[in-house]
Amino acid sequence: MIITAEKIPSYDIAYIRKKGPYGYGNAEVMEELKSWANANNLLCEDAIILGIAWDDPSTTKPCECRYDSCIVIKKDFITVDSNICRGIIDGGKYAVVKILHTAEDIKKAWEEIFPELLKQDIKLDMTRPVIERYADKMLKNNYCEICAPIK
Questions:
Q1: Could you report the per-residue pLDDT of 51-77, keeping only the tens digit for each?
Q2: If I label 34, which of 24, 97, 120, 133 is the partner at 20 to 30 A Cα–Cα?
Q3: Which residues on neighbouring strands pair with residue 15, listed in sequence order?
Q4: Which fold would CATH assign to domain 3-149?
Q5: Do the beta carbons of residue 65 and residue 20 sit within 8 Å?
Q6: Spatial separation of the C-alpha atoms in residues 67 and 131, rounded to whole Å
Q7: What is the mean pLDDT of the chain?
Q8: How far is CA 86 from CA 15, 65, 68, 76, in A?
Q9: What integer pLDDT is reported at residue 136 of this predicted model?
Q10: Contact (Cβ atoms closer than 8 angstroms) between residue 110 and residue 23
Q11: Over the Cα atoms of the chain, what is R_g?
C-alpha cells in the first residue's frame, strides 16, 4: 500500500445522507446524488465526488451509522432540492491511498489503511472524517482514493 501525504483544501459540498449499515446502500445513495448532480450540470471534467462514513461501525450500532454522498460545489451554487443538504468539509493534511475503483479493492483498502498508518507511526486526526474521493479524471482510469485525516 502506497500512502502519500496531501494538503486537501476545505470543500463546499452538496450531499445526501444515508443512515444505516455501511455497504450496498452507500452505492444507492451515491447513484441518487450523481443523478441529481447530472441534472444540475455538476458532473463535469473537474467534478469531485466524496463518500464520507462518519461513524466507526465497531463502536456505533449499524442502524446509527451515517454515510454522506457528496459533490464539491462552488460557494455561490444555489441548491433548490429539499433532498440535498449543504455543508463544508474542513481541509488539512491527509494520508491518501490510490486504489482501484472496485467494491473489493475499496473494502480491502478500508481494512488495511488504518493498520498501515499505525505501522508507519502516522497519527490520525479524529476531528475530521475519512473521505473516499472520486475525481472524474481518476474514475475514467478506474481509480479512486481513500483520504485519512492526519496530524
A1: 998 988 889 999 999 999 999 999 888
A2: 97
A3: 70, 85
A4: Multidrug-efflux Transporter 1 Regulator Bmrr; Chain A (3.20.80)
A5: yes
A6: 10
A7: 90
A8: 6, 19, 11, 11
A9: 77
A10: no
A11: 15
Alpha-carbon dihedral sign for residues 69, 97, 57, 118? negative
- Percent of the chain past pLDDT 70, that is, above it, reads 99
d(CA 119, CA 128): 21
CA distance 112 to 115: 6
d(CA 42, CA 35): 10
pLDDT of res. 78 = 79
- For the entire predicted model, the pTM comes to 0.87
* Rounded-to-integer distance, Cα 106 and Cα 112, Å: 10
HSE-CB at 19 with a 13 A cutoff on CA atoms is 4
Return d(Cα 124, Cα 151) in angstroms, integer: 6
